[in-house]
Inverse folding.
């Protein structure tokens, strides 16, 4: 079910907007200074996102997905602190230039940038983590919008949906008249499939699915380059979940918006995402196009995740899953964080931390952090799929006996 | 018709002092004794784990000690008059003397005994009434609940002090009258709180089990449910004592208590009667008020601490070990 | 609509309960309050006729041959006609006159100080929660916690002593300068009223502001961790907009909901404050009634205060429904 041939229709290139990199995350680390210790929720995560690309971020609960999303959008609150790394954003040239240049013009980064002559000048990179509060306000929602897990909680309960949409327009497009704002808000609701007369409704008067649509409408208000969605569908039932997913994917293609879609449900991502990134214990352990990922998950953890839900097609396999539970992020195991649960773990795994790098020379786009793919550690090359299956089955049996 | 339940939404927030999450902290054990012990242990943990609670309880403990042993240390008979009237604080009279030459420091020590004793005793009785009304109302539901809730809500909206003044005025002056009147006017607040708690606990499995095993209703209410609410009751008691102290001193200040016993309230009554302000005798009216405020603040502090324990979001940031440059960088 | 009707019924019931308590309490009292009152009067050299004694006894429920229900109906009837008896302390003037004269002073003082302390408390609560953990928060919050435990009348004594007696910035007693100003809508009179009202109002504000502020602070802190506040921030809205329209607008609801309980407490405190400042409101009359065992006046004042507080609570509930659309929905359902 998840993987069909029309996947190729939306493989990660978007002709209209070009293949330029939109967002670069470099060695980003986040710690929670909790009362009972320091939680390393995100550790040295790096990745790139191209314009219009849909990146799916997967991983077990508590592995740091939300923390990563909040860090990128600078929404972390104490006791969470970014302890290192960079988030670089490349504004688009063209129609959006005006908007972007406002940010850069006031930014100290634009060394040789003159606000008057933005015609051909390639815009400076925006260092998101170094924006001043004022710059940040201008950057937010114009360039990057975020959709939270629970729409009920993300909407102000005492304010109408319309006001919550128009708030954005009022702040970011002061030149719009009240009537224009109302017009635009109604249009946005129509786009996400809500009757415009709902503008005057309060959140509690809408159904769960409608609320999530309303939140998406708010996210689209300024047609941002990037939307981050943190488990936008978990609180919804399956049918509504599907509708929302279809809506999200069609809207992103229509507006060629890049999307970071967070979920712990891999099967969703296989349908929706161009690229899939898997996190484990605060680290990114694998990143690949969803095609490659589905066909051949490289990291033992990815393999376990992928095989922990049933497949409709293909040979019937024993449902393996991954025995054990994720580590306490205050005391992550040395070496590869996954080694206590990994069916392949051997001596180097306990000492050396594997780095994210191409799995093989032939697949430069499939990145994995595992010693199995390191020729220095394992000269005989990575194990085959059959070997993966066998090891996991052995592990499952072992844990069933124990 | 449920007139009684309608006030519920008026307090969507549980009264500031007692968080609704509190009782959830109790592990549900089978043995009642274990549950009670668990509750007491929680109270102890609460007493020691939070700084606010620790400071507050130390001050309260200090007042309790003064109440017990203070009069033994009093240098003078608190009611004995002398010719040394209206003298400011000195070595002989640490807090000066009254218009009739009584030693204020000695009065304060004796007054602490009376005020603290009656304050805590009345607080206990008020809490007792609230517990009985709240638990019975919450457990039985139906018409009993309707009636009790209605009474609770009515007493909640009728202003307590004016009612107390009228009621006290008709009865013989004395601590018993004041205590009864304060119980009459102050039980409703916590009764409502405990009713809501009991309501949510009524359908828990251990209650159902007890019911199935044929335990009597009263046993279920007071031996099964009550031990689970011990924490919230303790918090309710603390806030009740504050209110009782304030009401008690107010009534005494108005001369509605026994003006011949020495207490914080009666000291203030006499200070006011003798126009101590207009003679500049600040050492007369200042000390008893300070004591009330200090004890009240200590009790309030305990409740704030309990709040923080129950709702971690209220805790002040424990970020002393956060590197400074991180804090500075994190401006959003 | 049905909800509103039920609330109205509830408040009518509460009013009836207050009225009935007022009837029952004297009849529960041991001894004969009328005799006490009479003795009190006589000891001060005032003589009253036998007819008056009978009237008072009837009012308080002594030595009447009427059965209780008849007494109760009589009582309700006289209430309906605005008859609350006569006030012995002010030379047998009808109680309604005494209260009618005092009530404007009390209402004025109460409205101004409750409004001020509510607004100030909420505002400070918002700011302190927003700047949580800052110097302001660490100093102000414990300080206000301490203030909230101070009895109103002692605060009044202290303020009177410091600003009235020691510094002599403000007058010591009264509602206006009775020697030099005539009551009326003159600038002098209004200025004098304000001048005399500052210390009592200050007392009430200081003593009650902490309650509003601490509730607001805690509620605001809880609200600030809500997703919708984070989303407002993510939307790039201005700080003031996030702070007020998103966070405070929600955080204020518990304060409005708790208004009933706080108001009863503040009104009690106001009565005591008026007593200390000899402010010409009903509090001061209540003090005189208490000191002279003037039962009719005491009861009349209780009744007026109770009904006033009930009315204010009803208004607070209406405004709550206005502020919270979720309650409005229940209402129409
Ligand atoms: N306020 C906090 N204090 C301390 N630790 C925290 C705090 N918030 C989150 N964490 C820890 O940080 C880690 C990452 O949390 P995060 O919310 O990013 O996980 P997640 O991957 O989004 O999980 P989920 O799928 O459940 O949403 C978790 O292990 C969690 O325990
Ligand atoms: S590095 Fe070692 S332990 Fe970690 S996933 Fe690879 S094989 Fe398993
Ligand atoms: Mg999450």
């Amino acid at each position: 079910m998840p993987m069909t041939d029309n996947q190729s229709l939306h493989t990660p290139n978007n002709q209209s907007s070009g293949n330029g990199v939109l967002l670069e995350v470099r060695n980003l680390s986040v710690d929670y200074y909790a009362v009972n210790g320091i939680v390393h929720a995100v550790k040295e995560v790096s990745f790139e996102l191209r314009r219009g690309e849909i990146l799916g971020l997967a991983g077990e609960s508590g592995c740091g997905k939300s923390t990563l999303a909040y860090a990128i959008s600078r929404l972390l609150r104490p006791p969470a602190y970014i302890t290192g790394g960079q988030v670089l954003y490349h504004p688009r040239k063209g129609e959006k230039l005006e908007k972007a240049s406002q940010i850069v013009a006031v930014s100290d980064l634009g060394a040789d940038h003159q606000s008057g002559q933005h015609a051909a000048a390639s815009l400076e990179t925006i260092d998101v983590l170094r924006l001043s509060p004022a710059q940040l306000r201008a950057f937010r929602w114009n360039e990057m919008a975020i959709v939270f897990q629970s729409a009920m909680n993300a909407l102000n309960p005492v304010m109408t949906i319309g006001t919550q949409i128009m708030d954005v327009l009022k702040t970011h497009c002061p030149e719009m008249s009240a009537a224009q704002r109302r017009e635009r808000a109604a249009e946005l609701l129509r786009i996400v499939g809500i009757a415009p007369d709902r503008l005057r409704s309060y959140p509690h008067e809408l159904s769960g699915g409608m609320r999530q649509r309303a939140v998406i409408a708010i996210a689209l208000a300024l047609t941002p380059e990037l939307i981050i969605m943190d488990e936008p569908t978990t609180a919804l039932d399956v049918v509504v979940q599907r509708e929302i997913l279809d809506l999200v994917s069609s809207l992103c293609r229509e507006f060629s918006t890049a999307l970071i879609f967070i979920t712990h449900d891999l099967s969703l991502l296989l349908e929706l995402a161009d690229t899939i990134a898997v996190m484990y214990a605060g680290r990114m352990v694998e990143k690949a196009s969803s095609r490659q990922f589905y066909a051949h998950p490289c990291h033992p953890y990815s393999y376990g995740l992928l095989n922990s839900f049933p497949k409709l097609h293909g040979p019937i396999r024993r449902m393996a899953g991954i025995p054990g539970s994720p580590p306490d992020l205050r005391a992550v195991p040395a070496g590869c964080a996954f080694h206590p649960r990994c069916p392949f773990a051997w001596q180097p795994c306990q000492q050396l931390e594997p780095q994210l790098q191409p799995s093989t020379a032939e697949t430069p786009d499939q990145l994995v952090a595992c010693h199995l793919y390191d020729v220095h550690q394992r000269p005989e090359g990575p194990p085959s799929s059959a070997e993966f299956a066998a090891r996991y089955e052995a592990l499952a049996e072992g844990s069933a006996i124990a | 018709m449920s007139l009684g339940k309608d006030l519920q939404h008026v307090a969507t927030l549980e009264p500031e002092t007692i968080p609704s999450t509190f009782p959830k902290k109790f592990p549900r054990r089978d043995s009642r004794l274990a549950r009670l012990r668990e509750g007491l242990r929680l109270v102890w943990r609460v007493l020691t784990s939070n700084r606010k609670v620790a400071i507050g309880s130390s001050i309260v403990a200090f007042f309790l000690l003064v109440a017990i042993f203070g009069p033994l240390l009093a240098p003078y008979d608190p009611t004995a008059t002398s010719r040394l009237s209206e003298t400011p604080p000195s070595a002989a009279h640490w807090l000066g003397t009254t218009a009739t030459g009584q030693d204020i420091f000695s009065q304060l020590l004796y007054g602490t005994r009376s005020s603290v004793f009656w304050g805590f005793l009345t607080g206990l009785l008020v809490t007792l009434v609230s517990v009985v009304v709240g638990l019975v109302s919450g457990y039985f539901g139906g018409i009993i609940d309707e009636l009790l809730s209605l009474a609770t809500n009515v007493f909640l909206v009728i202003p307590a002090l004016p009612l107390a003044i009228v009621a006290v005025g008709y009865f013989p002056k004395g601590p018993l009258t004041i205590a009864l009147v304060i119980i009459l006017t102050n039980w409703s607040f916590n009764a409502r709180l405990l009713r809501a708690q009991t309501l949510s606990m009524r359908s828990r499995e251990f209650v159902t089990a007890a019911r199935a095993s044929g335990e009597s209703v009263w046993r279920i209410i007071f031996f099964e449910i009550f031990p689970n609410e011990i924490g919230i009751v303790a918090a309710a008691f603390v806030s009740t004592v504050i209110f009782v102290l304030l009401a008690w001193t107010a009534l005494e200040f108005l001369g509605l208590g026994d003006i011949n016993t020495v207490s914080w309230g009666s000291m203030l009554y006499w200070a006011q009667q003798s126009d101590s302000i207009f003679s500049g005798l600040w050492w007369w009216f200042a000390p008893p008020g300070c004591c009330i405020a200090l004890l009240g603040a200590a009790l309030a502090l305990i409740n704030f601490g309990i709040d923080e324990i129950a709702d971690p979001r209220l805790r002040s940031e424990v970020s002393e070990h956060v590197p400074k440059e991180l804090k500075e960088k994190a401006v959003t | 609509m049905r909800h509103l009707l039920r609330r109205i019924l509830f408040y009518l019931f509460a009013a009836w309960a207050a009225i009935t308590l007022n009837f029952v309490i004297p009849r529960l009292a041991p001894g004969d309050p009328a005799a006490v009152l009479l003795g009190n009067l006589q000891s001060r050299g005032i003589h009253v006729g036998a007819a008056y004694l009978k009237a008072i006894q009837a009012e308080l429920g002594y030595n009447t041959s009427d059965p209780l229900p008849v007494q109760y109906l009589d009582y309700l009837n006289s209430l309906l006609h605005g008859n609350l008896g006569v006030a012995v302390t002010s030379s047998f003037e009808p109680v309604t006159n005494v209260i009618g004269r005092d009530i404007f002073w009390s209402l004025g003082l109460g409205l101004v100080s409750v409004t001020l302390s509510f607004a100030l408390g909420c505002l400070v609560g918002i700011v302190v929660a927003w700047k949580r953990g800052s110097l302001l928060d660490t100093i102000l919050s414990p300080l206000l916690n301490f203030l909230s435990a101070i009895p109103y009348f002692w605060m009044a004594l202290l303020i009177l002593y410091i600003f009235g007696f020691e510094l002599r910035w403000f007058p010591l007693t009264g509602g206006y300068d009775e020697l030099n100003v005539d009551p009326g809508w003159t600038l002098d009179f209004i200025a004098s009223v304000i001048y005399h009202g500052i210390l009592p109002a200050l007392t009430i504000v200081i003593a009650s502001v902490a309650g509003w502020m601490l509730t607001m602070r805690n509620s605001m802190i809880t609200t600030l961790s809500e997703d919708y506040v984070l989303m407002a921030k993510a939307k790039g809205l201005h700080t003031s907009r996030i702070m007020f329209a998103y966070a405070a607008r929600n955080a204020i609801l518990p304060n409005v909901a708790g208004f009933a309980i706080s108001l009863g407490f503040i009104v009690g405190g106001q009565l005591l404050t008026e007593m200390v400042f000899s402010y010409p409101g009903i509090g001061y009359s209540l003090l005189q009634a208490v000191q002279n065992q003037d039962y009719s006046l005491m009861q009349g004042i209780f009744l007026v205060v109770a009904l006033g507080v009930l009315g204010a609570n009803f208004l607070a509930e209406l405004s709550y429904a206005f502020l919270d659309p979720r309650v409005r929905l229940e209402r129409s359902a």
Observations:
- Confidence is low (pLDDT under 50) at residues 1-17, 105-122 of chain A.
- Chain A touches chain C through 31 residues (CB under 8 Å).
